[in-house]
Amino acid sequence: MKTYRIQRIKGGMKFTCTICGHSVSTLDFDARVGNLRTQAATTINAHSTQMHHAPMIISPSDSQQRTWR
Ligand SMILES: [Zn+2]
């Protein structure tokens, strides 16, 4: 299950966290370091893992009564 979605933006792509709306774009990275899309995906995946302990499936009815720790 993906925890982010990808949108095309002008000059690149934008990766948005589906849980909290945090986003990064390929414009934030340096193409000389490596593939922009890979860097952005890695960053948003790391965000999900650190901030939301993803990957996990969150059901809307469940999320309010539980603490994710
Ligand atoms: Zn998030």
How many distinct folded domains? 1
Order of helices and strands: EEEH
Radius of gyration: 14 Å
Distance between the termini: 20 Å
Main sheet makeup: 3 strands, antiparallel
- Residue share in helices? 10-25%
Structural class: alpha+beta
Shape assignment: globular
Main sheet: which strands, in order across? 1-2-3
DSSP helical segment count: 1
How confident is the prediction overall: mean pLDDT? 85
Beta-strand fraction estimate: 15-25%
Q: Are there runs of 5+ residues with pLDDT below 50, and where?
A: none
Ions, cofactors and other bound molecules: zinc ion
Describe this structure in words.
The protein is of the alpha+beta class and 69 residues long. The chain has one domain (4-52). Helices cover 25% and strands 22% of the residues. The protein has one helix at 36-52, and strands spanning 4-9, 12-17, 23-25. It has a three-stranded antiparallel beta sheet, with helices on one face. Strand 1 (4-9) and strand 2 form a beta hairpin. The longest helix is centred in the middle third of the chain and has 17 residues, at 36-52. The protein is globular, with a radius of gyration of 14 Å. The two termini are 20 Å apart. Zinc ion binds at residues 17, 19-20, 22, 47, 51-52.
List keywords for this structure.
1 helix; single chain; globular; binds zinc ion; three-stranded antiparallel beta sheet; 3 strands; alpha+beta; 69 residues
